[in-house]
């Protein structure tokens, strides 16, 4: 079933029934053969709509995702950490630019995307609506949120839409530097003084629930997974990504002597699957729909950036470009 019947709004998947059946069959055969779909190729309206939704949300997540860590640049401990964090935050904003460009190839303008973000119409990742109270929170994001992002994006970089896959390939390379940096920061705290260890443990305790939500609702209640996997936009389901993340990172967290705040978390050696307490999907739904601890603050910052940058866009639009001397 393509959607409906759960706590999320059902999508309208009837679009696909109105497509030219021959074109639809050819399109699906191309996807089956592993070909990339490019912007000028024929594609079903629903494929376009789903890609715009997903890539746009991803772009917003990168740009909003720069905020919780961004506030730590001036307070990062030491010059080297400041430099590395500044570069990382800059990369995240760059990822947003790549992704907005990929979404634009599908026909939605950047202005419309930004407007939908700042007016609260578009979603972005749940996890960036939580506060980064301490330096350890920033370290958690750099290591484990980036790790989660890589799990999802490496899989999807093998997907069907050319511009998105190419953007993801580049993004994943940069994200893997972030992950190394974040791991280094976490090791430093986890092997530091008792106070530093406590600070790191408290960050893991705070961020674990949003991290479990990060991969999206469980496959049983996910709305879009089925059609997105059929058309190879998503190459792994939400539950597959969550399992892969647990498999790769829980042992590393434990290795550092840190604990995870879920007494039910364990790997079932028979099935090879991690078992854990079912995340609170009602909280997740509230946060992604605007009612998280920092949603208002995050959007207010983006609105301010938009307003303050308006004069630059106006100047560019009104400038007579023939008088602009190219830089040597
Ligand atoms: N947060 O049917 P599904 C990063 C929404 S990048 C908010 O399962 P789908 C880099 C979903 O949109 C992080 N909303 O949806 C970084 C839908 O609502 P809609 C972002 C979520 O699309 C690191 C509804 O719930 N990554 O972190 C979330 O099949 C460090 C039903 O859900 C991407 O965007 C969520 N977590 O699967 C930056 C990757 N999950 O649209 C700075 C690309 C679900 O119907 C610092 N996106 N929803 O109103 C994807 O892979 C997919 O879109 C999923 C969701 C897996 C996020």
List the keywords.
Ferritin, disordered N terminus, mainly alpha, 2 strands, 328 residues, globular
Characterization of this structure:
The chain is globular and about 65 Å long. The chain has a two-stranded antiparallel ribbon. It has 328 residues and is mostly helical. 61% of the residues lie in helices and 2% in strands. The longest helix is centred in the middle third of the chain and has 29 residues. The protein has one domain: Ferritin, core subunit, four-helix bundle (Ferritin), CATH 1.20.1260.10. Strand 1 and strand 2 form a beta hairpin.
What topology emerges from the helices and strands here?
Layout: H1 21-32, H2 45-70, H3 79-104, H4 110-118, H5 135-156, H6 162-190, H7 194-214, H8 225-230, H9 238-255, E1 266-268, E2 273-275, H10 281-288, H11 295-318
Antiparallel strand pairs: 1-2
Helix pairs in contact: 2-3, 3-6, 5-6, 5-7, 5-9
The structure holds Phenylacetyl coenzyme A.
Q: What name goes with the CATH superfamily?
A: Ferritin, core subunit, four-helix bundle
- CATH A-level architecture: Up-down Bundle
Q: pLDDT below 50 for ≥5 consecutive residues: which ranges?
A: 1-7
CATH fold type: Ferritin
- Bound ligands, named by name, code or SMILES: Phenylacetyl coenzyme A
Count of alpha/pi helices: 11
Instruction: Kindly report the average pLDDT value.
Output: 94
Number of strands: 2
| Class by alpha and beta content | mainly alpha
**Regarding CATH, which class?**
Mainly Alpha
Total of domains: 1
Largest sheet: 2 strands, antiparallel
């Amino acid at each position: 079933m393509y959607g409906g019947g759960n706590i999320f709004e059902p999508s309208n998947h009837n679009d696909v029934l109105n497509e030219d059946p021959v074109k639809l069959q050819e399109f699906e055969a191309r996807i089956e053969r592993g070909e990339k779909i490019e912007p000028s190729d024929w594609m079903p309206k629903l494929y376009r709509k789903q890609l715009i939704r997903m890539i746009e949300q991803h772009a917003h997540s990168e740009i909003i995702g720069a905020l919780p860590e961004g506030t730590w640049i001036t307070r990062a401990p030491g010059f080297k950490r400041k430099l590395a964090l500044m570069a990382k935050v800059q990369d995240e904003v760059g990822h947003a630019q790549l992704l907005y460009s990929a979404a634009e190839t599908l026909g939605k303008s950047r202005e419309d995307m930004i407007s939908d973000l700042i007016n609260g119409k578009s979603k972005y990742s749940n996890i960036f609506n939580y506060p980064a109270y301490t330096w350890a929170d920033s370290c958690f994001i750099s290591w484990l949120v980036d790790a989660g992002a890589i799990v999802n994006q490496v899989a999807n970089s093998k997907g069907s839409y050319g511009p998105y896959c190419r953007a993801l390939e580049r993004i994943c390379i940069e994200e893997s530097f972030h992950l190394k940096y974040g791991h280094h920061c976490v090791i430093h705290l986890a092997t530091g003084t008792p106070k530093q260890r406590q600070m790191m443990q408290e960050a893991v305790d705070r961020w674990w629930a949003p991290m479990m939500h990060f991969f999206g609702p469980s496959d049983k209640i996910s709305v879009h997974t089925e059609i997105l996997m059929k058309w190879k936009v998503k190459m792994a389901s939400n539950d597959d990504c969550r399992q892969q993340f647990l498999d790769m990172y829980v042992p590393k967290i434990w290795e550092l002597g840190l604990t995870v705040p879920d007494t039910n978390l364990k790997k079932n050696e028979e099935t090879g699957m991690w078992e854990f307490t079912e995340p609170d999907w009602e909280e997740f739904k509230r946060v992604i729909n605007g009612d998280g601890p920092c949603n208002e603050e995050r959007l207010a910052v983006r609105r301010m950036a938009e307003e303050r940058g308006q004069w630059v866009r106006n100047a560019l639009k009104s400038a007579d470009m023939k008088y602009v001397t190219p830089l040597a």
